[in-house]
Records
---
Amino acid sequence: MGSIDSSFYPSSHNTGPATSFGSGQTSSYNSGPTSSYGSQPANSYGSGPGNSYSSGPTDSYRSGPSNSYGSGPTNSYESRPNNSYGSVPMNSYGSGPNNSYSSEPTDSYGSGSNYSYSSQPAGSYSSGPTSSYGSGQKQVSSSTGLSNPTLRLNDGNEIPMLAFGPGSVFSGQPDQVFNSALSAIRNGFYHLDVAEVDGNEQQLGSAIRQSGVPRSQLFITTKVWTVGTTVRAAFDASLERLGLDYVDLYLVNWPQIADKPDRLQQIWAEVEAIKESGRARSIGVSNFLPEHLDIILRTARVKPAINQIEYHTYLQHSNLIDFHRQHNIATAAYAPLTPITKAAPGPIDGIFMSLAKKYGVSEADIALRWVIDQGIVAVTSTSSEERLQSLRRNLFSFKLTQGEVQEISYLGKQKHFRGFFNDIFDDGDRR
């Protein structure tokens, strides 16, 4: 495709595997840069540029009785007599057992009317205009389905707030990916997130067919990583591997799919055509920065509905989330458990532990609620059926207060950790 325009990408790291963009067949999963992802440690939940989730024993968070999830009831945390979090100033961040968390109202996340977050019971989102978070609906597909609140996208479609990624075939065996997907569906997780780069579309398709759950009850996301000929050819190949007639969400997996801005605009126009055909109900992007979104928005007829990014307490992306809100683009977070699985110890350890005890849930549940209670879709993964059942039981049984969300955010900014694309971003780049 020619040389790379170095001004198009975020840092000076425009050599190495990240420069081989937009070439190769979309079905060649084990060659080129696409195979360099998904080889992370087996405890990397929901992480990877294309949601390359490891297929190891992903239910073991840290060592020690207080952090061991998936072994016994997840609400077996000792209750503290002093679990009422007072309305103290937000700058009193203790590290001991008596941390004080603000008890401010919980319905004012974000700025402006586009991000009015409902103060209804946990899992209910406001029923305002199409730019608000959800319409109070939940994805309750059957008597066995997870009660999964939804977020209303800028195209009017609803996306469930919790997504499950079954893992990459490159970090495990295809059978493990299939079993993970089937277990998730049977436990009521109907928002399923896969990607061309992870080679897991075929396994998800097989799991869907074996599950017996009607297609209409599922929300399926997949992504394009390379364009050998056209986006349509890549999309057709994805549908064939999935065995589906349509997907609910189709994402451009990274901006480096193109070598120049006008090529990125052309690719987005091809994605728009797929939406217009009805075979992708919503379209969006992944791993885009504001400068990449700007390029698309200059010529877009259909605005991206969502940008799926690595997002957790130690990577809050400076102005990217604000950019999304200004342009009514939703945010989805992959690798939301990184502070627990990859970046521990850190400044959020104490508050995660304290809040887990307060609510009788796991620290992973707190990490996921911190994402969801900001109106951000969380993409997670586990190979443990017990952990799936724990998520189903606990995640939407509570809601963090605004003060708790803010304090976690404040503490998280005291450390920077990026799990992916470190060949593109400098060490201190927080974008």
---
Amino acid sequence: MQAPTIDNTQITILRNEPERYFIGIRNRNLKLSEIGKFFGPTCGLLYQTLSKVEGAFQDKLLAKPYPISIYFDVSGQENFTDLAVGFFLKEKLSDNLQQKIKEILGEEHEFINYTIPSTNYGHYRYIGPYKHLGDIWGQFCQNIESVSNNQFKAIWKEKDGGISWEEYPNDPRQEQDENKLITELYTALTTTQ
């Protein structure tokens, strides 16, 4: 089945967005085909870890109750990505809580406490199966220039000063119809001038 064509009228340019705080587990060399296998267990591990850390009450710590995936780099030709799965926080994580989380997770997991910089972002809400996300991302990033009247272009590699992420407001374990799955896509923008 072919991926749907995105509706450019639904692409939003968000200007001067505030910085966001994120904690997660990073995998710097993940096959694109294995994102699903990494995502579920990693979210579960983070939830379990936070429940063990005194002072890290999820309802007081988490800015959103659902998971986030951050893409630091995607190499489509090689089918690998540098990805972190985790959660947005209401405020920057204290050094004390960060140390406790790292101790529980151990060295086999790369725990990150990351600040997403304040900048301009493109946003698109996709509703449909996860299997089309790669194509949807391609269309979204490609169409930002025309939607912004050639003011902005997407930058999604951290080394280029950009970052992209996905938010998953509904849970595929609870929403059985894959055509109703919601994915919020965000990518950093740079000016074309």
